[in-house]
Design brief:
Elements lengths: L4 H18 L1 H4 L31 H37 L1 H16 L2 H12 L3 H28 L2 H8 L4 H10 L3 H24 L11 H8 L8 H29 L1
Protein name: ABC transporter permease
Organism: Rhodococcus zopfii
Family: Belongs to the binding-protein-dependent transport system permease family.
Amino acid sequence: MRRNVVLSVSAVVLLLAAGFALFPSVFASGDPLRGVPAEKLQGPSAAHWFGTDNLGRDVYTRVVHGAGLSLTATLVAVGIALVVGSLVGLLSGALGGGVDAVLMRIVDVLLSIPALLLSLALVTALGFGTMNVAIAVGVSLVANFARVMRSEVLRVRKALYVEAAFACGVRWRTVLRRHVLRNSYAPVTALAAVEFGMAVLAVSSLSFLGFGAVPPTPEWGSLISEGRNYLAAAWWMTTLPGLVIVAVVLAAHRIGHAIEDRSAK
C-alpha cells in the first residue's frame, strides 16, 4: 500500500466509512434528527461541513449516522449472496449431472434479469425496511457468486490431490470440505470485495426510491432523495451525500480488484 497511493486512499476511505458506521458519535456528535429552522438551507461552512437541509438539520451529521444502516444492509446483502451463492456453486460443481443442470438453469434465469430490477421486484414483494432491502439485494447477487464458485470447483476437482483422496477411500464430503472448498474460496472472496461496492449502490438506490428506513431516519439513498426537490437552491443536499457514496463504491472496487490480483498470483 505504501507503493500505491490509490490503494492507500481507498483503504482510508473504507476505514472512515467503517468508523462512521461503528462510532457515529465520535465523528458527528450532533443529533441527526434535530434541526434548527433558523439555519435551514445554509451552504457548506466551518460550522456545517456539508451544509444544512430544509429543516435546518446538519447534512454531515446525517451522512455519518446514516452510514450505519446503509453499510449494515450492504454487509448483510453481500453475506447472503456469498453464503447462498457459494453453496449453490459448490453443489453444482461437485455433484454435476442433473443437479448441475437444474441449478445452473436457475442461475441463468437470475443472470438474465438486471440486478436492480430483480431486487426492486423482490423488495416490493417483501415490503419496506432496511433488512428487506438487504435481502432483496443479496438474492440479486447470488448468481454471480454461484458461477464463480462452480468454475473454481470444476477446476479443483480435476487436481491430482483430489483424485488421490478419492482413490484412498476418503468420503466425498470430507474431500469437498478439506480440499475442494479450501482451494476454491479465494476468487469468491475477491468477488465479495468487488460486489460490496455494487451492493452499496443497489442499497442506496432502493433507499432513494423509498424502500428503506422510514423517514426521518437517515440513510444515504434517502438523503439524496430528500434533497432532489432543492437541487437548484441547495445543491449540497444531494451532491455531497452522493459523493460519499461514489467514494465508498470506488474504494471498494479498488480494494476488491487488488485482492483479486493478489489471489490470482
